[in-house]
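Before we proceed, please read the two lines closing this message. Tell me what the token row says about the fold.
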Amino acid sequence: MALMIIAPDIRVTSWVKHLSRLDPGIDIRVWPEVGDVDDVTFALCWNHPPGEFNKYKNLKCIASLGAGVDHIMRDPDLPAGVPITRVVEHCMAQSMSEYAVLGVLNYCRQFDSFRTDQSQRKWRPRIPLLAADMRIGIMGLGQLGKDAAKKLSYLGFPVSGWSQTPKDIAGVRCLAADEALDDFLSQTRILICLLPLTPKTKGILNQKTFNKLPAGAYVINIARGQHLIEKDLLAALDSGQLDGACLDVFEVEPLPEDHPFWSHPRIIVTPHISSITYPKAVAPQIIENYQHTKTGSPLLHVVDIERGY
């Protein structure tokens, strides 16, 4: 029984190191040098070639290297009946929450403007935006959204959350289902997208959504680039409906050099670093699931194929 890794080259060495440390006898194959495909029972992957998994007739688990599984689910030729798992790890939630908090505080304390002033040697005091006046709306209240909501609420921001199914988070106004979306958006000054990417949520950050926010709202997208209709964001910024945006994810990555986001004065661009999977922290749950495939025990963090997360 072999574990196969399909991952960016920069991460493979670290994955092999930490998986082997926990299970010294493990048989690890690094794609595309996998040897006999019939040996492979477990696939640990990120952005695999479509149709690749059908080569492995003894595959018992497809494990995402991260919290998201859209990179797996978009393969139209996945083998039927093979469970898909995702990573659930506190350090990833902590990293994502840090980014969300930084994006919010950077906007409210106007650090971008101060940076511009510094470059011009201008002393321009500005009054910070009051946390109490800046209701934050978080789309998506899974592990990542819930953690971000708690931390922002602790800092004194009023926080609302919207999700497809009801949630209960202390100190957070939780709304659920499509019929609550307009109410959620109408009171949101800073919108943070932490939704899973599914056919239903693709393109949800669009003109219709932006127009339901209060004029001058701010958008932070740290979920997936495909949630955002890019031309709608530019139009909303140009019209003044949105005051700015902080974006970590994009429809095409790396962001093309000629993309208008790079030079837009009210858009912050970061290179998909809001939450990184740390092999050392995540390896234990990967090994546990690998062992479960040997014994037939229930797997951890199995994805609901119908829901897409």
